[in-house]
Design goal:
This protein is an alpha/beta fold and 662 residues long. Helix content is 46%, strand content 10%. The protein folds into 3 domains: 175 residues, Substrate Binding Domain Of Dnak, Chain:A, Domain 2, CATH 1.20.1270; 150 residues, Rossmann fold (3-Layer(aba) Sandwich); 237 residues, Rossmann fold, CATH 3.40.50.2030. Helix 6 packs antiparallel against helix 10 and helix 18 runs parallel beside helix 24. The protein is globular, with a radius of gyration of 24 Å. It starts with 21 loop residues before the first helix and ends with a helix.
Length: 662
């Protein structure tokens, strides 16, 4: 069949020729190659749309309110107290309401995801879902024990039933404290109780926060901030934690595994199927479907050598961590990968799904499938996924992908780039890694922090954002952190950025400072540990709690020499994650921009005042070196407060260092 060129239906005839070089907008060579191809093909993807769409400066500073029909009201970020809204709302009230709604939306996303996992768990426990089982009864028992459920002399079925009923309170409870509050260090929990921010149930917290932000309800930024903290904590210690723990129970807890990332994982002579989204159920079922002999034979009859299953974004990270499934790229590459012409089907479920995928897929004849009732896209084919007959959906997607392969009519260009990395670390595995099955403990980690080999721990997580150069800030920040002996934990799209940069292999320890490199070489681990998807930030919370429990580093999470960062954040989920880390006691620095006007009382509360209440605080810088310096200075401050500081300088990477790191 004669090869077709892309239809160009995504082309904007009014678009001015974009003058930004692909090298200016992405640090990913494969994405850069595909962006050049997309421009030649006349196809728009997110990088060019971002260049053509200027961000609203008033909205970026959160100096506007559109919550009622008396507005929208626009205030001045340059002179924030010069005027108020029509209702009299001050800049602090308006900003705190806007920030609250971001936290509510982000927490709702993670909470709904977690509740879907809990619904599946209930159906599995009750024997209503064929093909599913509890794959990790040890994890089942340990989670149950952590929230006070007696497990001695009980069957797996009995423990699972009790655990379901207890975890259901995470969502539906009207009064009391969420179950996983029992995992919080006592001093941290005391600070929450004093401030009245211990979550009750996620549904109540999100509902109340949205109510408070309605016109004419809560009009004091400090009071709104209390409910912001409470709602965010219901995400981190509730919805997200439930999702992670139930996934581990049903599908197995990840352990380190070698896997490739980047677009080179696509295979020209195979049927390529990409799963993109956040819920592992779809991907787990697809893994079964692509291995069915009847479908493999169908692919070969169509002329393919086999079926190649590939992940993207967070569900891809989960499957990479559990099964070693290759990963094609992070959020900013989800459209670019379709430009290869090699993707025969992309199936998506929820969260971080660009609507632009439908147009780009159409341009290259790729089948785009939505599978979740929460997420449909105009122009995409919807095949609903149901846990009770999961393979009806995934088998059908494979069949349609085989048909597309057989009738491929677009040129295929796959960047010849793959990057190996070790993924699949977790709170549980670190415990095992440092002490084995019978002597598992965080004591070696704490001891190496106390003796100074490891300066501290940083969680570098989150999205990529087409407003900044893809992957660049993640990579530069982490290089500076590890060079200064800071152990880095990663989740989400950040993890893929660092894998592409070669920092998730043990050999990367040579780029770390002398203390961290010694520890890495002794244990045989990379200086950067991949923890999974964005909901798996709860693993980092548990690791921090275990560091407190182990002793020697203070009595609360706020005492620890740790810091967090989301260098290229873009979603409301990121704001919710950042806020639950801040409320838990972690200094958290965001890049790109921050939706708050500086020199206001609300800004001062988030960036300073919460720390005085026993929590953490926010920080912001778009520059990776400055961001690293802020985090290291905070870690050193905590070391000094603990009396474990030693005379040492912060090493800033100069140009010669950068060349050697490259």
């Amino acid at each position: 069949m004669e090869e077709k060129k892309p239809s160009g239906k995504a082309k904007n005839s009014d678009q001015k020729k974009n003058k930004l070089s692909p090298r200016d907008v992405t640090g990913c060579d494969a994405t850069s190659q595909m962006l050049e191809k997309a421009r030649k093909d006349g196809v728009l993807i997110a990088f060019d749309r971002a260049a053509d769409m200027k961000a609203c400066p008033i909205g970026a500073d959160s100096a506007c309110c559109k919550h009622c029909a008396m507005g929208p009201c626009r205030l001045s970020a340059k002179d924030p107290y010069s005027k108020v809204g029509v209702c009299g709302a001050t800049i602090d009230t308006i900003m705190s309401r806007n920030f609250a709604r971001m936290v509510a939306a982000g927490a709702a996303a993670h909470t709904d995801h977690g509740m879907a996992m809990l619904d599946l768990f209930r159906e599995v426990v009750n024997g209503n879902v064929p093909g599913y089982s509890i794959k990790n009864p040890t994890k089942l028992a340990s989670v149950a024990q952590s929230i006070g459920i007696e497990t001695a002399d009980k069957s797996v079925q009995e423990i699972a039933n009790e655990l379901y009923l207890e975890l259901e309170r995470t969502y539906t409870q009207v009064e009391g404290e969420i179950p996983f509050a029992k995992r919080v260090p006592e001093k941290t929990l005391e600070a929450w109780r004093k401030e009245g921010i211990v979550p009750r149930g996620a549904m109540r917290e999100i509902m109340e926060l949205m109510h408070r932000t309605h016109m004419g309800v809560d009009q004091h930024y400090e009071n709104i901030t209390k409910q912001i903290c409470r709602t965010a904590l219901a995400d981190g210690w509730g919805g997200s934690m439930v999702s992670t723990e139930i996934s581990d129970i049903l599908y197995g807890t990840p352990s380190p595994i070698l896997a490739d990332v980047n677009m080179g994982v696509l295979k020209e002579k195979q049927v390529n199927i990409i799963i993109h989204g956040h819920e592992p159920n779809l991907f787990e079922s697809m893994l079964e479907s692509v291995n069915l002999p009847i479908l493999i034979n169908a692919a070969k009859e169509a002329g393919a050598e086999g079926i190649n299953l590939v992940g993207m974004c967070c569900s891809g990270s989960e499957m990479m961590s559990r099964h070693g499934i290759p990963h094609a790229g992070n959020f900013s590459s989800t459209e670019a990968v379709l430009v290869t012409g090699a993707v025969d089907a992309m199936a998506v479920d929820i969260q971080c799904i660009k609507q632009g995928l439908a147009k780009v897929a159409e341009c290259y004849g790729t089948e785009l499938f939505t599978t979740n009732p929460r997420c449909r896209i105009e122009g995409a084919t919807h095949i609903e996924f149901n846990d009770h007959n999961a393979k009806e959906c995934t088998d059908e997607i494979v069949i349609k992908a085989i048909s597309r392969f057989k009738n491929r009519s677009y040129p295929v260009e796959i960047p010849n780039i793959t990057n190996p990395g070790i993924h699949g670390f977790s709170y549980d595995y670190i415990n095992y890694m440092l002490g084995g099955s019978f002597r598992g403990s965080y004591a070696p980690l704490n001891e190496n922090i106390i003796n100074g080999r490891i300066r501290g721990v940083a969680g570098v997580v989150g999205c990529t954002n087409p407003r900044v150069k893809q992957d660049y800030i993640h990579v530069e920040l982490v290089k500076e952190l590890i060079k200064n002996d800071v152990l880095v934990l990663q989740t989400g799209c950040s993890q893929i950025a660092l894998a592409k940069a070669g920092l998730l292999v043990p050999e990367a320890a040579t780029l770390a400072g002398p203390g961290l490199s010694e520890v890495c070489e002794t244990v045989g681990m990379p200086p950067v540990l991949g923890f999974g998807s964005c909901v798996d930030n709860s693993r980092i919370l548990l690791a921090a709690s275990e560091m407190v429990k182990t002793g020697g580093l203070g009595d609360s999470i706020a005492d620890l020499p740790v810091a967090g960062a989301a260098p290229e954040w873009m979603s409301e989920k990121a704001i919710a994650i950042g806020q639950y880390f801040v409320a838990s006691g972690v200094y958290t620095v965001f890049g790109v921009t921050f939706p708050i006007t500086e020199n206001t009382r609300f800004h001062d509360l988030l960036f300073d005042g919460l720390e005085a209440k026993g929590m953490g605080k926010w920080g912001h810088s778009p520059d990776p070196r400055k961001m690293a310096g802020m985090m290291i200075d905070h870690i050193d401050k905590k070391r000094k407060a603990l009396g474990i500081d030693k005379a040492r300088e912060r090493v800033l990477v100069d140009m010669q260092d950068r060349r050697s790191l490259g």
